[in-house]
Amino acid sequence: MYYDPIKKSLGEVFNRTPWLRRLFYHLLDLLLLRTWHVHRELRQWSKGRTDSPLNILDAGSGYGQYTYWLSGLSRKWQILAVDVKDEQVADSNRFFRQIGRTNAQFAVQDLVLYQQPNSFDLALSVDVMEHILEDVEVFRNIHTSLKDGGMLLISTPSDQGGSDVHSDDETSFIEEHVRDGYNIHEIQQKLRTAGFERIEARYSYGEPGQISWRLSMKYPILMLGKSKLFFLLLPFYYLVTFPFCLILNWFDANTTHESGTGLIVKAWK
């Protein structure tokens, strides 16, 4: 099935008013387990920095929910959010103007080509690298674009069942992915090749997270892929599953996993 058309349909529903878009962001923050892990790392990074004028790159901004969250942590931070999709970038710029968030700007850029030397204190890449074949080139560009001491934070599927692929003869649940997931040692080596020296990597989406992902994302998307009529059933579906997903997300984000279908990687220049 194709994941992007489903995401586009959901975006069209929630983009009708700024209030609905804010609601959409908050729902994504609660439902998407990767957001729990990413926010945890960003809170740790931001300690003692909210009063400093910093520059942040959201590398592959998508809907813009991470730029929205970061821009609310400090008005002194300037955030550049880049994506390859013109329509999504224009829509995000329009929304941020409507809500008066002047410390964030969206631009159309290809991460394989884009670099802005020694410009950013933090770069964020959430569920992006599994879509890009030329990953080492992107890592090099981000390394070049970071200031000395700057950090890159990555969330991406692992090879332990990422993209819901568990054997060699399976295909990805999300067909837009160019790789099913990274080996934890492979991504660290690629980051070293790109110039990063200090790297930390850990698994996310352990057993609790995998159950939560199926309940909160996989099954609803499969239903929507069959018929848009399932939009009418989603509120009732989440009324039952949502409390369980929150509990599972909390356990996953606050537990160390020996293996998992996701990776959280931090690399410093």
Automatic annotation (TrEMBL):
GO terms for biological process: methylation. CDD domains: AdoMet_MTases (cd02440). It comes from the Bacteria. Keywords: Membrane, Methyltransferase, Transferase, Transmembrane, Transmembrane helix. GO terms for molecular function: methyltransferase activity. The chain crosses the membrane at residues 229-251. Signal peptide: none annotated. This is Class I SAM-dependent methyltransferase.
